[in-house]
Design brief:
The chain has 464 residues and is α/β, with parallel strands linked by helices. It has three domains: 44 residues, no CATH class; 209 residues, Rossmann fold (3-Layer(aba) Sandwich); 173 residues, Ribosomal Protein S5, domain 2. Strand 20 and strand 21 form a beta hairpin. It is elongated, with a radius of gyration of 27 Å. The N and C termini lie far apart (82 Å). The chain binds thymidine-5'-diphosphate and magnesium ion. Magnesium ion binds next to helix 3.
Length: 464
Amino acid sequence: MAAKAVKSVFFCQECGYESAKWMGQCPGCHAWNTMVEEPVRAASGGGKTARSGGASVAHRTGARALSLREIAVDEKQRFDTGIGEFNRVLGSGLVRGALTLIGGDPGIGKSTLLLQVARHMSAAGLKILYVSGEESLSQIKLRAARIGEFAEELKFFCETDLDTIIGVVEAEKPAVLIIDSIQTMASAEVSAAPGSVSQVRETTGVLLKIAKSEGISVFIVGHVTKEGTVAGPRVLEHMVDTVLYFEGDRHASYRILRAVKNRFGSTNEIGVFEMGETGLTEVENPSQFMLEGRPLDAGGSIVTCAVEGTRPILMEVQALVTRTSFGFPRRQAAGADLNRVNLLMAVLEKRVGLALADCDAYVNLAGGVRLQEPALDLGICLAVVTSFRNFAADAGLVAFGEVGLSGEVRAVSLAEQRVAEAARLGFTDCILPAAQAERIKKADGVKLHGVRSLNDALRVLGIR
Ligand code: TYD
Ligand code: MG
């Protein structure tokens, strides 16, 4: 059997789908034109023959399955990363030997975040090795100078060859290894280019082995392609313990760190950061941050409450409704889903009787956030109505709820937490689905206005 022959296979750069021939559309993720040819070496050892032996192999190797009672639980050691928001997303700290992937758009701040994590952890006496394949040592030093003082325990190394890196890791024996980024790393075992699916898969596999056998916590940085996934992403996502995405609008300063997979904690947590002159700072009060600079007496501005993970965050929905100067009205949405905005405008037209057909409408979630939560519906509708009528809603008002096609206001998740967040920031009135208003007992000074329909909500505002 000619098992060692070099052959080539086609991989989808998006999802890692493997095929013997080229295809225009990937059958795995349905992306177009993502298949690229990569050489692969067939695995050594002959497939089926390795499977012979059965019971005798098990006897020789001592392999045995265990019952739950026989399995000892080793409580994983966790490190404090020194950054509260980061700990929260990881699930109360970094687990020893965990392999964590941090994905995000280029330039969003992944290197900065990890450098800051490394700074805190090394200051606590842990040995950290930061391997960069993207920046030179002097570039790293310039970045570090913006952030602050660094401890001696933090070591830097610029290299892209995996074998060299492994050699340094074995010599240094760090507690935490940072690989920035996986797309620049290459193993000599694989002939494909760095960043290709087979390289990314191979290097991650080697790093996984190191993490588990040496008990080193490894962070892998992965850049996201324009479709919103790390190159060769699903290949990576199932191999690692934790997948975090660092996202945000590059032009706005806030950043959200979100766990999409976590073997050691919940995926419902998010961390909020702000990028400033001296690196990233934690935003402990995201609602206040999102509402900064809000106009207090303008029509078309409504504060609503979204839930990110399990965290309620207040934010401002803005709408601008103007008479169209063309035959065809223009509708635009930034942050909110345009289809949803169109639907809500149709509901307003039919159920509330607003003549929006010859109006342009622009809807914006302030602060550059992107959200698609149904609970924003009521806020969007009220912002459109108040802009249309040039009516400034009370500055102490919050509104949330899902709006249905009949103009009814429906229940949303975590209503009590949303009200509590509004109370915490000193809001005085809250329009919310009637069924939920009745059930909330403690509103801490917030007057609850339960509504069953959009028209009810407009009556609360006094414009119906
Ligand atoms: P970086 O961490 O290099 O992004 P990534 O590793 O995800 O590609 O972040 C780079 C951006 O952050 C860059 O545009 C400069 C900005 N930045 C600041 O605004 N303040 C700072 O203190 C630092 C270090 C970077
Ligand atoms: Mg970087």
